[in-house]
Design goal:
The protein has 413 residues and is an alpha/beta fold. The longest helix has 19 residues, at 264-282. The radius of gyration is 26 Å and the shape is elongated. The chain is built from 14 helices and 16 strands. The protein has helices at residues 20-34, 60-68, 86-97, 120-137, 191-202, 224-238, 249-258, 264-282, 302-309, 325-335, 338-342, 363-369, 375-385, 406-411; strands at residues 5-9, 40-44, 50-54, 75-82, 104-111, 143-144, 151-157, 162-165, 168-170, 182-186, 206-213, 240-247, 288-289, 316-317, 387-394, 397-405. The strands form 2 sheets. Strands 1, 2, 3, 4, 5, 6, 7, 8 and 9 form a 9-stranded mixed β-sheet that branches. Strands 14-13-10-11-12-15-16 form a 7-stranded mixed β-sheet, sandwiched between helices.
């Protein structure tokens, strides 16, 4: 038998018809970029899967952790390539299964190379009998169970090697990174917006991040470090991104000064959309992304969301709109943003919080409430005060560098 390889399977890309080659090319590039810095022999594509052959000095756990984050991967496994011989396949299956604890098992074969002289049923029967004989010789109380077994040994007869493995790991699913166009995500420090960003990246969107922060926090409470940490974690799924950091407190003070109290938060959100929209257009993004969930807080009632959206001229995507908070937190833990968002920080939205926020505002209500505001000047103030960080995943690590200030950005055509 040869050295183990990582076998990578995709699922949704089969639905792409004539565009499949484009998506598979993006997935291949994503695998190579994710494994950058590790000794890599080559990546092959025998049939409907990718095979990753690592160099002798490569760390298998590190490689598996990187593959886990590659968007578009349905599942992956560490497989053993074996000779094109039924006895060799049976022995390899037993080597895979012997050290594992289980009470029931099944053998599942997939034959994409039809020149192999045995059918899938013949392979499964022969290997299953061999494994069962070995188990009985060891007096292990294990039975064959074809429906919902505790453990399944997979055999793949490919146009290249024959692969045998027993431990299958779930991937992210979805579409490969950077296959659906650009969007700009309003990234707070909380759980929701980071999960919303991940959900859109799973659909192939490439995101820029826009974070609004207050300047009145006590030392150590600024949300800036939270936003950067979230962006660092999220960029592991899409390889590079920009984080726009926009000071917002002076804009909030103008809103507090001139607008009715009960509309404050809704007017904050309208100004954020307007500023994020300018940034999105400069990034050639086609839509905005927020972490709103219907009815979760007062500003996220249906009427309030519609009233806020009336200030935007580009689409606003809300991938979590019907998602339960517990499901959001589960995903946050899965993608590594939960602990970051759990850190204490100063969120700009609750500053100058109204005692009784409006629940059922209309676009006309908010238009009237902000009629005394110099909206173009406030947008320019936000853009000119912004700073920009560029994040890049390289060799398994994320680097962060400051690129340009908002003052230069505002002066650009």
């Amino acid at each position: 038998m040869s050295s183990p390889v990582i076998v990578v399977h995709y699922h949704e890309l089969w639905l792409k018809g004539g565009n499949r080659r484009f998506f598979l090319g993006k997935l291949f590039s994503a695998l190579r970029q994710s494994l950058e810095g590790l000794p890599l022999e080559r990546i092959e594509q025998p049939g409907d899967r990718f095979l990753i052959r690592l160099g002798d000095a490569a760390s298998l756990p590190s490689a598996l952790e990187r593959v886990r984050r590659v968007l578009g991967v349905a599942y992956y496994a560490v497989a053993v390539p074996v000779e094109r011989d039924l006895d060799a396949i049976s022995r390899a299956a037993w080597i895979e299964l012997e050290p594992l604890p289980f009470a029931s098992f099944a053998i599942r074969a997939k034959r994409s190379d039809k020149t192999f002289p045995y059918t899938t049923m013949q392979i499964e029967a022969a290997v299953g009998h061999y494994v069962l004989d070995q188990l009985r010789a060891q007096r292990r109380d294990v039975r064959v169970q074809l429906k919902d077994p505790e453990l399944t040994c997979h055999i793949e007869i490919t146009p290249g090697p024959i692969l045998v493995y027993a431990k299958r790991m779930e991937g992210t699913g979805g579409l490969p990174a950077n296959t659906s166009g650009k969007m700009a995500c309003l990234l707070s420090g909380g759980y929701d917006s980071a999960v919303a960003a991940y959900q859109m990246m799973k659909r192939g969107a490439h995101l820029s991040f826009v974070h609004f922060y207050g300047t009145g926090a006590r030392p150590g409470e600024s949300s800036l470090h939270i936003a950067t940490s979230l962006a660092r974690q999220l960029v592991r799924y899409q390889f590079n991104a920009k984080l726009y950091r926009v000071p917002f407190e002076s804009i909030q003070r103008e809103i507090v000064r001139f607008a009715p109290e009960d509309f404050r938060i809704l007017l904050y959100r309208r100004m954020m959309l307007r500023i994020a929209q300018v940034i999105a257009k400069r990034e050639h993004a086609l839509a905005l992304v927020t972490g709103d969930s219907l009815g979760q807080v007062a500003s996220q009632t249906l009427r309030n969301l519609v009233a806020v959206d009336a200030a935007a001229t580009m689409p606003v995507f809300r991938p979590l709109i019907g998602t339960d908070k517990l499901d959001i937190l589960t995903t946050a833990r899965k993608i590594g943003t939960y602990d970051i968002s759990s850190e204490p920080f100063h969120d700009c939205c609750p500053v100058f919080l109204p005692r009784r926020p409006a629940l059922f505002a209309s676009p006309a209500d908010l238009d009237a409430a902000e009629s005394a505001l110099d909206i173009p000047e406030l947008i320019t103030r936000g853009i000119r005060g912004a700073s920009i960080e560029r994040l890049k995943l390289s060799g398994g690590d994320v680097s962060v560098s400051s690129v340009v200030t908002g003052r230069k950005l505002a002066a650009a055509p």
